[in-house]
Amino acid sequence: MQKTYYDPADLRKFGKITEWNEELGNKFFEYYGKVFEEGALTAREKSLIALAVAHTEQCPYCIDAYTKDGLQRGVTKEEMMEAIHVGAAIKSGATLVHGVQMMNKVNKLDG
Amino acid sequence: MTNIKTQSLHKRKSNLAQSNKQLEILSYGIFQNGELPTFKDKISETNQFPLKAKKLEILQINVGYMCNQVCEHCHVDAGPDRQEIMTRETMLQCLNVIKSTGAHTLDLTGGAPEMNPNFRWFVEEAAKAGIKDFIVRSNLTIIRANKKYHDLPEFFKKHNVHIVSSMPHWTRGKTDKQRGDGVFDKSIQALKDLNAIGYGMPNSSLKLDLVYNPSGAFLPGNQAAMEKDFKKALLEDFGIQFHNLFAITNLPISRFLDYLIASDNYEDYMYQLVDAYNPSAVSNVMCTNTLSVSWDGYLFDCDFNQMLALPVNSKVKHISEYNEALLENRNIVISQHCYGCTAGAGSSCQGTVA
Ligand code: SF4
Ligand code: SF4
A single GO molecular function, which one (chain A) (predicted)? Predict the structure, then answer.
């Protein structure tokens, strides 16, 4: 029995999802590949966005993948950490901005 | 401070200083239990086994393993403590070959080739042969290492030498981590010296190329994109220019293999190499048009095989008995380290191959 939910080796098996639904699997990978191609944004910029989102999504597979991807592209650890802070700032901002809703409710019920 | 070791594996009497130990690691474990296919099986899938040498284009001569640096990932296991240095006698044998070879490129490497006491004489003599492209792989810091080397840029210019130098990153931290404290600043100074006399400048015939190899257990990114980033950063930060960037994959041998094992990255790295295997890179791997000569005159399919003590599969074994026609069409000697040459866009001493 597998003892943990996440196994780093499972990342290598990602491609196998097509085995159980070839059409959708292939469509996903095609889309995924296209998204990360050089476009209006450079592939390097996209890699940093992916790294930040990987953290806000807290996906260990994606964190592994996009840390390595960044290193391959010559991204420095300082750049990676700044990108993660952007993700963290949006996450915390998104939490805090709901404080306004709480304040509205308090004001309405008990103002 | 970086945690770079200051001695070669040889000096440290590390197990991995022995090439047979390295070959064992590359043959056993994940490759023996079938988890990953051997290189031979992989290239057989596309009927590319045995790999054959084609017409010789590049003659690469390793004039010695001595170096002023002890880079963490050196595939030569070079360092100041290595005593293997090509003698003048072997150089004379090489010169005979250089005069008659059909190769268009002569490529001197090391260690730091400049540390060979006969280096300048050898370059002067070799330059007379008029080979189209005469490369010296210079680690840059050697130029700043000692007063006696300060005039190397002028010397190279005089003999129209094409300089190829390593630079793992455009930032100090990443460069020094791999190559040692102070290497970045010295390299920058050396590049400025070279630029000052015309090397690497736009439209200059004095060729200056840089080699990028990753600073850790990951593969190099896209060569063209890396070149763009390097050029932009070196120009903006230091006013430095160069011609081409070659992105080279670290092969899992010698000190890089030692690093992979010590950092528990070996298996993952081999998986990366095998996953990135590109069958179309196989027909252009370096050994198909290159011959490597060791400091003591023996012949190998490439510098990596030289370090693994895997001699050419030919009757001709030594530069003294050199025969280009006999060496052509020989079967290349392969092992799992060869996956380093076929990952992604492929990798050779001149960068990508596919
Ligand atoms: S990588 Fe080059 S500069 Fe570094 S130790 Fe090896 S031979 Fe010397
Ligand atoms: S390691 Fe050497 S023999 Fe193997 S593929 Fe690369 S160049 Fe050829």
Answer: peroxiredoxin activity
Interface of B with A in 212-231 (CB under 8 A): 214-216, 218-222, 225-226, 229-230
Residue B49: predicted pLDDT: 97
A6 located within any domain: no
What pLDDT is stored for residue B291 in this prediction? 97
**What average pLDDT does the segment B286-309 reach?**
98
The verdict on residue A1 lying in a domain is no
**Domain residue spans of chain B:** 52-251+287-326
Q: Cα-flanking dihedrals φ and ψ of residue B300, to 5°?
A: -140, 160
Q: Is the pLDDT of residue B180 over 60?
A: yes
CATH number at residue A45: 1.20.1290.10
* Cα B219 to Cα B221: distance, rounded to the nearest angstrom: 6
Per-residue model confidence as pLDDT tens digits over B31-85: 999 999 999 999 999 999 999 999 999 999 999 999 999 999 999 999 999 999 9
Please list every residue in chain A whose beta carbon sits closer than 8 Å to the beta carbon of residue B170: 74
pTM: 0.92
Residue A72 to residue B275, Cβ atoms within 8 A = no
Answer CATH for B52-251+287-326 from 3.40.50.1980, 3.40.630.30, 3.40.50.1100, 3.20.20.70: 3.20.20.70
For B117-147, the pLDDT digits (tens) are 999 999 999 999 999 999 999 999 999 999 9
Q: Which of B64, B3, B83, B12 is nearest to B254 (CA)?
A: B12
Is A43 close to B225, i.e. CB distance below 8 A? yes
Ligand nearest to the CA of B311: 2
Q: Is the pLDDT of residue A1 over 70?
A: no
> Is residue B2 predicted with pLDDT exceeding 80?
no
Residue B26 near ligand 2, beta carbon < 6 Å: no
Enclosing domain of residue A72? 13-110
- The residue whose C-alpha atom lies closest to atom 7 belonging to ligand 1 is B111
Structurally, how many domains does chain A consist of? 1
Beta carbons of B229 and A76 less than 8 Å apart: no
Residue carrying structure tokens 């196998």 = A16
Tally of residues, chain A: 111
**pLDDT score recorded for residue B267:** 95
DSSP string, B267-314: HHHHHHHHHTB-HHHHTT-GGGTEEEE-TTSBEESSHHHHHTT-B-SS
In contact, B123 and B91? CB cutoff 8 Å: no
